[in-house]
Amino acid sequence: MNIRRGAKIAGLSVIALLLLVIVSVGVLIGTQAGSRWALARVPGVQLENFQGRLGGQWSAERLVWQQGADRVEVHSVDFAWTPACLLKMTLCINRLHAGQVLLRFPPSSAPSDEDPMNLPAVKLPLALQLGDIQLGSMQLDGVEQLRDLKL
Fold first, then answer.
1. Is a pLDDT exceeding 70 seen at residue 85?
2. pTM for this entry
3. Is residue 67 part of a domain?
4. What domain range includes position 89?
5. Structurally, how many domains does the chain consist of?
């Protein structure tokens, strides 16, 4: 009888813990306050004028990611996706607009090979569904690579 009661308590504890995790994730990505809190804890990420929620639609005047000398800066970001698509193993990006993307990646100090680089075959764990994609311009180390991309 005690074993049954212990198993029941353990089962209910696991269910309660799972519900707590689900609610916590929902609050983090489903609310603007939770999204701001989560983003403030990502190393190297800075956002200016973040509006919205990570679990749906958001925008920012400026997003910066920096790690060492590598830096990615995106201006006028507007992003919308459908998290429910993940249940179908699909990443559904409904809208991704960016005014300007600045990429800075200093040259590596490692010696370069003379052989051409061979990329491995990559199988993504999720299908990708893209909606409205617009990019004003993209610069790599100060040199414009792309302008007025629309997909």
1. yes
2. 0.75
3. yes
4. 44-109+124-150
5. 1
